[in-house]
């Protein structure tokens, strides 16, 4: 079976031509759409990003030219599909600086990647009374799997609070660790506050206490250069759809020795080496964790999204977001009715700005802005404990990516001012 072949990380992929961030807009067909008679201003990339033509073309081309199941077929088409699928894995490994391609497991999304660790690592390694530490700014994806694990094993979930400025209260870290702390599950970047957590320092602290660190990279990996070696984490989870790739593809990166020692997550085809009528043995990494036919086309599309991001350069992606965030914060501060959450310094935050309007509920604001073609998110953003900490039931949230520009922010500000006048009159 070809699945036992080791796939080397491809270091010799040709460097794609450099792309200017200012010209990326043209590459996204959806941005030509009109919404309620106005050009679409898409400010919800923290929920999901738009897809460049290059990714869409790769998906269409795959179904036109290469469609076949992977790992099994002995014919040319199947070998080509397998090559492209495993080639995408090698691109992901290189993109996050993983030491080995086998450390990249494809899942459906960040949520599934975290559940995989909770199930396969947690069930085996946690006992009653063991402790898992999370923070007050986590997405439900990085809370609920641990609650479920705690229920199964008798482990306890404890949390680290945040400060009023939206950063972690690091002074509370040492006192939260006990000799029962086994795992810290922490987001790299908050999907509400935009806060970038100092993961490398935290990793050091976690390891000093003999625990492991899982990083929810859903809002980190897409927006800045991330190397798993520099992060110092033991597991990192992220989603393709938040970084220009298709929906339905997630990544779990884990240190090889941890993944090796874990039991499979799901059982079925492709994840086995042998099966008898009474037992089975498992395939090698990473296929041990990829039961059944994977999401072949979308994984290959994800590879194209990585090529696209690399053609801009992640340092440039980050620089562009800092510039936009700085501009947006300055403009938003000029609207008196807005309360802006999260750190004030754009260097300490990603391109995500949550806010509340003193006179308008976030849902009404979002609905009003939609009438002007501006797509922002409103709600609890799957972070209800954080909403409670902020004293809100919901916030409005604008989030940026490579295709946004200052004009988008100007349109947002105009629409916010117009909303103030509209609701103020009623
Ligand atoms: N973690 C964070 C910080 C997120 O922002 C999100 C999605 O918004 C997730 C996890 C879950 O991602 P997915 O829905 O792709 O599993």
Polypeptide structure, described:
This protein has two domains: 121 residues, Aspartate Aminotransferase, domain 1 (Alpha-Beta Complex); 235 residues, 3-Layer(aba) Sandwich (Aspartate Aminotransferase, domain 2), CATH 3.40.640. Helices cover 37% and strands 16% of the residues. Strands 4-10-9-8-7-5-6 form a seven-stranded mixed sheet, with helices on both faces. The chain contains 13 helices and 17 strands. Helix 1 runs antiparallel to helix 9, helix 2 packs across helix 9 and helix 10 runs parallel beside helix 13. It has 426 residues and is of the alpha/beta class. The chain is globular and about 75 Å long. The termini are far apart. The N terminus is likely disordered. Pyridoxal-5'-phosphate binds next to helix 3.
Strand order of the largest sheet: 4-10-9-8-7-5-6
Tally of individual helices: 13
- Averaged pLDDT: 94
Cofactors and ligands:
pyridoxal-5'-phosphate
**Beta fraction:** 15-25%
Query: How far apart are the termini?
Result: 69 Å
Query: Strand pairing plus helix content: what structural class?
Result: alpha/beta
Number of strands: 17
Annotated CATH topology of the largest domain:
Aspartate Aminotransferase, domain 2
Low-confidence stretches: 1-13
Number of domains: 2
């Amino acid at each position: 079976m070809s699945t036992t072949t080791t796939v080397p990380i491809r270091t010799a992929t040709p460097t794609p031509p450099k792309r200017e961030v200012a010209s990326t807009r043209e590459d996204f067909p959806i941005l030509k759409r009109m919404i309620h008679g106005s050009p679409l201003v898409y400010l919800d990339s923290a929920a999901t990003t738009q897809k460049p033509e290059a990714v869409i073309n790769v998906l269409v081309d795959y179904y036109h030219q290469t469609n076949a199941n992977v790992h099994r077929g002995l014919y040319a088409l199947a070998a080509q599909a397998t090559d492209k699928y495993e080639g995408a894995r090698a691109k992901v490994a290189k993109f996050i600086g993983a030491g080995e391609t086998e450390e990249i497991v494809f899942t459906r999304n960040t949520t599934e990647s975290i559940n995989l660790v909770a199930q396969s690592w947690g069930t085996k390694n946690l006992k009653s009374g063991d402790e898992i530490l999370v923070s007050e700014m986590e997405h439900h994806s990085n809370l609920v799997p641990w609650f479920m694990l705690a229920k199964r094993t008798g482990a306890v979930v404890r949390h680290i609070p945040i400060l009023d400025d939206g950063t972690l209260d690091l002074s509370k870290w040492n006192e939260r660790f006990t000799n029962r702390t086994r795992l810290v599950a922490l987001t790299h970047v908050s999907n509400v506050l935009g806060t970038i957590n100092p993961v490398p320092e935290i990793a050091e602290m976690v390891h000093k206490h003999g625990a492991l660190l899982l990083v929810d990279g859903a809002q980190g990996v897409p927006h800045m250069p991330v190397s798993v070696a520099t992060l110092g984490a033991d597991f990192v989870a992220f989603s393709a759809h938040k970084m220009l790739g298709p929906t339905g593809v997630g990544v779990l990166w884990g240190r090889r020795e941890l993944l090796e020692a874990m039991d499979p997550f799901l059982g079925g085809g492709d994840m086995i080496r042998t099966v008898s009528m009474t037992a089975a043995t498992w395939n090698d990494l990473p296929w041990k964790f990829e039961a059944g036919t994977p999401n072949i086309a979308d994984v290959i599309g994800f590879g194209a999204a990585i090529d696209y991001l690399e053609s801009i350069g992640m340092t440039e992606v980050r620089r562009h977001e800092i510039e936009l965030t700085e501009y947006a914060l300055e403009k938003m501060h000029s609207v008196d009715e807005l309360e802006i959450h999260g750190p004030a310094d754009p260097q300490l935050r990603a391109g995500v700005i949550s806010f509340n309007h003193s006179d308008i509920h976030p849902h009404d604001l979002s609905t009003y802005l939609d009438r002007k073609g501006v797509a922002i998110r409103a709600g609890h953003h799957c972070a209800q404990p954080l909403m409670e900490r902020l004293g809100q039931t919901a916030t409005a949230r604008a989030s940026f990516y490579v295709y946004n520009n200052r004009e988008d922010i100007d349109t947002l500000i105009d629409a916010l001012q117009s909303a103030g006048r509209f609701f103020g009159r009623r």
